[in-house]
Amino acid sequence: MTETLHxxxxxxxxxxxxxxxxxMGIPVIIHEMRPHVGTFAHRTGDLAExxxxxxxxxxxxxxxxxxxxxxxxRQADGLIMATADRHRLPAGGALAVDRDxxxxxxxxxxxxxxxxxxxxxxxxxxxxxxxxxxxxxxxTSSALGAAIQAETGAERLAFFDAIAPIVxxxxxxxxxxxxxxxxxxxxxxxxxxxYLNCPMTRDQYEAFIDALLAADKTEFHEGETAGYFDGCLxxxxxxxxxxxxxxxxxxxxxxxxxxxxxxxxxxxVVQLRRDNALGTLYNIVGFQTKMKYGAQxxxxxxxxxxxxxxxxxxxxxxxxxFINSPTLLDNQMRLRSKPHIRFAGQVTGxxxxxxxxxxxxxxxxxxxxxxxxxxxxxxxxTTAMGALITHITGGAEAKTFQPMNVNFGLFPxxxxxxxxxxxxxxxxxxxxxxxxxxxxxxxxxxxxxxx
Length: 451
What we know:
Elements: E1 5-8, H1 12-23, E2 28-32, E3 55-58, H2 65-75, H3 79-86, E4 88-89, E5 94-97, H4 99-112, E6 116-120, E7 131-134, H5 142-152, E8 157-163, E9 166-168, E10 178-179, H6 189-192, E11 195-200, H7 202-214, H8 235-240, E12 268-274, E13 281-284, H9 293-300, E14 311-313, E15 316-322, H10 325-328, E16 334-335, E17 338-343, H11 353-371, H12 384-395, H13 424-445
Parallel strand pairs: 1-2, 1-7, 2-6, 7-17
Antiparallel strand pairs: 3-5, 4-5, 8-15, 9-13, 9-14, 10-11, 11-12, 12-13, 16-17
């Protein structure tokens, strides 16, 4: 009989890993502690529940590294991308989904597969034998985290990941706010009007910054440090870096024209993105926060158009755990000290839904190949997936290792191209053209790995 693959964690990475392995004929058991053991961020027991944003970010596969990663996952028949496409919401050039139907669909698809079984309950120790993938994500349980720490001998690493608030659409003043994607990006009217915009004058912006800096913040526990990942900084931490930081970040006014006052240029703009298919919920883009709940409500209601806002969810903050992968994992994503255990997803030090899912895809295929009797070589570093796995399994500096989104800085340079901003479009196109060719070749070469 074919040996079974065990996957700890039913998030995006674990779900994708299970799907890929089962497609290769391998029996899979997903071990998920929810709903018996919950987390502060999860609301359901569904697999692949999205707990922060509902966006998979840019879907541009020619000029954006994360869009290229979307493309590679689709080419590999990835479950997460296929399900996201079915539950897509208008979001300009981004891929955003209706989060609850998305998770429910992933759950149904996996549980309907004859080779996949779900076992609920917490795994608290590292297994001594068998084939395992640990895909427990940023909210790895304390018991399993302690077991990983004891095995690796490394100090547990963490940064703080903050969650943005969600507003009820019917509580937004549309006589102040207007619908527009930045630079009217998108092919349809729905895409071109995917974002809700709240304008600020200079005086309003300055008052908002003052309130943000003065607001009560969540305190850290003794021994914890605020090692934030730069891609998910709390808004008040950005404000502390300089009063104009937000105006050049999530509150930048460029590419937008106030539909109510087209002749007046906003000094700053707060954008909200649709969070569900019904259009009843909007999340405040880039407004992750560690402010206390009472402070959040008062500060965010200073935003023009949100004076009477009702919040479906306020922001929060949590400890995000990841291992020092460059020192602990080989290029098969195996734990060097226990090679029957692989790691996948955000716990490996990739950041973002798409990156986590992509590492689940590779881990699932690699584990299945090993059960079938041969190792699957990692994809070329010229591809998005190859660049990511190369980074976390040896390309990054171990002493300063931090979570990383996919980006073209992880790719080997293309010779003969102009550097700097002026040459960026041609350079990015060359990266993606090369990646697509190399990814197709890799998939074709190892096509027999898939059933």
